[in-house]
């Protein structure tokens, strides 16, 4: 009887998972096929499971200008530099906060936790960036998220969970704090560093709101801002580099361009994620109390 109940429960669970997989994959498959469909076939079906006429005209349309490629490089720069800066500041801050004997320890923790629940808002943030002279600068997108309080606390908890004897033994051997950090703690904290680095990287890659808020020069738009403009503006009238192609005489529907842009922007994450999925799973319990 118990075995039958377990089988029934497994059937329900697998059925729900199968439905979730189909519901997730179908939109991606539809957009991918739409990007490869000829202009004459775009409006003949609401759901494209396979293109009747495969054409790469939409991708040729996009890559015939450097607007998309330039935005890709801008996003790659923001992601790489931003993630490196995030990791440096987060690891250094977490190591310092992992020591309860640090002067002002409780005050620092309160100062870090409060922004997780409250923030000044969009207008004060904009005025701060303006007064710092960072408007229309890529550093506005990098510096504003230099440290995530959530990731800082996760990293701190992970370091506090490491055996204290390692640090004590290193200091007995004459190691300084920096040596302990770089030669002892960082090598054994690679899973935690990979996890928060992945969180930071995905955040920078997908960020578009700060780009809309701080960047009015379309030549400096990251990929997600350009993608937003392409998707919401069928005529691409807000993107000068793409607008020059409107007289090229190519048979491309706006829907094709939108679908091709979405696939281009999502492809790097779709390619990298399967190899890093285990770090996402490990990140779910990062810093948790283990019994």
From TrEMBL:
Its main location: membrane. Coiled coil: none annotated. It holds the Pfam family BPD_transp_1. Keywords: Cell membrane, Membrane, Transmembrane, Transmembrane helix, Transport. It comes from the Bacteria. It is a multi-pass membrane protein. GO terms for cellular component: plasma membrane. Residues 72-276 form the ABC transmembrane type-1 domain. The chain crosses the membrane at residues 12-32, 72-96, 108-127, 139-159, 180-203, 257-276. GO terms for biological process: transmembrane transport. It is found in: Cell membrane. Belongs to the binding-protein-dependent transport system permease family. PANTHER family: ABC TRANSPORTER PERMEASE PROTEIN MG189-RELATED-RELATED (PTHR43744), POLYGALACTURONAN_RHAMNOGALACTURONAN TRANSPORT SYSTEM PERMEASE PROTEIN YTCP (PTHR43744:SF9). This is Carbohydrate ABC transporter permease. It comes from Paenibacillus rhizophilus. The lineage of its organism: Bacteria, Bacillati, Bacillota, Bacilli, Bacillales.
């Amino acid at each position: 009887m118990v075995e039958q109940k377990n089988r029934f429960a497994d059937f329900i669970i697998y059925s729900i998972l199968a439905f979730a997989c189909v519901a997730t994959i179908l939109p991606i498959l539809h957009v991918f096929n739409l990007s490869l469909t000829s202009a004459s076939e775009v409006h003949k079906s609401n759901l494209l499971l396979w293109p009747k006429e495969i054409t790469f005209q939409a991708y040729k349309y996009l890559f015939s200008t450097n607007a998309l490629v330039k935005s890709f490089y801008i996003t790659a720069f923001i992601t790489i530099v931003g993630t490196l800066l995030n990791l440096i500041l987060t690891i250094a801050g977490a190591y310092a906060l992992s020591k309860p004997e640090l002067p002002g320890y409780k005050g620092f923790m309160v100062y870090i936790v409060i922004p997780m629940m409250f923030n000044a808002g969009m207008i004060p943030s904009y005025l701060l960036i303006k007064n710092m002279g960072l408007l229309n600068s890529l550093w506005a997108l990098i510096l504003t998220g230099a440290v995530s309080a959530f990731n800082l606390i996760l990293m701190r908890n992970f370091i506090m969970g490491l055996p204290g004897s390692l640090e004590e033994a290193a200091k007995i051997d004459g190691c300084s704090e920096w040596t302990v950090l770089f030669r002892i703690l960082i090598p054994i904290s690679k899973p935690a560093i990979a996890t928060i680095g992945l969180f930071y990287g995905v955040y920078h890659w997908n960020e578009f709101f700060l780009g809309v808020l701080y960047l009015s020069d379309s030549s400096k738009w990251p990929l997600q801002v350009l993608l937003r403009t392409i998707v919401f503006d069928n005529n691409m009238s807000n993107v000068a580099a793409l607008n020059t192609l409107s007289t090229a005489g190519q048979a491309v529907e706006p829907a094709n361009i939108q679908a091709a842009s979405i696939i281009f922007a999502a492809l790097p994450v779709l390619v990298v994620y399967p190899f890093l999925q285990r770090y996402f799973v490990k990140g779910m319990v990062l810093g948790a109390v283990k019994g």
